[in-house]
Amino acid sequence: MAKAQKPVIKSAAKTLTKAPAKTPVKTKLKTSAAVAAPAPNRYKPLSGREFPRFSAIKTFFRLPVADLSEDFDVALFGTPYDGGVSYRPGARFAPTQVRECSSLGRGFHMTRAMSLFEKLKFADIGDCPIVPIDQKQTYKNIEKFSANILKHGKKFISIGGDHSTTLPLLRSMHKKYGKLNFIHFDAHLDTYPAAWGCEYHHGAFARHAVEEGLVNPKNMLQIGIRGPLAAIDDLDFIKKHKIKVLTVDDIKLKPLSEVLKSLPKFTGPTYISFDIDCLDPAYAPGTGTPVPGGLTTYETQQILRALQIDNLVGADIVEVSPPFDSSQITGLAAVDTMFELMCLMGGGR
Ligand SMILES: [Mn+2]
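Above are the sequence and the manganese (II) ion SMILES. Below is the predicted complex in C-alpha cell form.
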C-alpha cells in the first residue's frame, strides 16, 4: 500500500507545481443545477471549488438526480423505513442526513489511486416509496423498486432504513443473480428468532436470507460481531449453517495486516450489507442498538479496501439514526463507507 501511495503523492505535487488554473471571469451566474450538468459526462459530483459544499440541493455525493432510463451504472437511493427496529427508532431520517454529510465526499481514492467518477457513472434516483406504518407494503415496494433498477441493468447502493430493509433487497437480487455471496458487517448476528410474534424485524433478516435461499451460507462472512447475546443458543444458527464469522476479538487481537490477508475471496455476484453498529459507539453513536467494544472507522476502511470481490452487484448501509448522532460522526462514517462500497463497485484498485 505504501508503494501505491508514493506515485500518487508525487503526481499531486507535480500538479501543484504547474501554473494554477485561472479562475474564469464569469459574466453570467450559473445555478448549482447547471453547474452539476456539464456535457458530456453529467454523472459527476458538483465541484466544491466551483460551488461551495455547504450550498446547493443535497443529493448523494452532489451527484445529479436521474431517471433509470438514463445512461449510468449505479443507482444510489434512500430506503427510509424504520418500522422493524426493536429499540431506538430514527433510521428513517438517515437518507436525508447521509445526503447532507456526503457534501464532503470526494472522488479520488488516495490508497487505491482511483478516480471513481471517471470509472463509473453514479446517480441519485431519490428514495424508495415506503409505508411507515405497514411493513408488508414496504417490503413489496422495496422489492419492486430494486428489481426495476436491476431490470435496467444497473447496480445499486441503498441507504436505509433499519436492517429489516435488506431482506426485500436481497429478494430482488436473488431473482436476477441466484444465490449470492454475502458480506455482512454488524455488531449483531441478525439471525435471531421472531419477536413479539413478528418474524420480520431488523434482527432477523440474515436468518430469513439464509432460510429463503437468497444467499449462500458457505460464501457468507459476518464481520464485527460481538456480545453480549441473549443466550448461548443465539449461536446455533450460524453453527448449523457453517457461516464464517469474524468477531471483534478475531480482528483486534491480531495485527490488522494479518487479518486482512486472511479474508476470503469472493467470486461471482456478491452483496454487502453494512450495519453502521459494527463500529464502536465512539465512532457511530447515532444508531438504533449500539454495542460497546466495536470496530474503528479505520479498521472498517482497511477491511473494505482489502476485500477481493470480482462482482459487487449491490450494497446497503443501514441503522444510521440521525436523532442519536453527535456532530454528524455517524453520518460521516456512513459517507466514508459508501465511498468505499462505490470504489469496490468500480473494481477496487
Ligand atoms: Mn443489523
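The beta strands are 74-79, 108-109, 114-115, 122-127, 155-160, 180-185, 215-225, 244-247, 265-275, 308-318.
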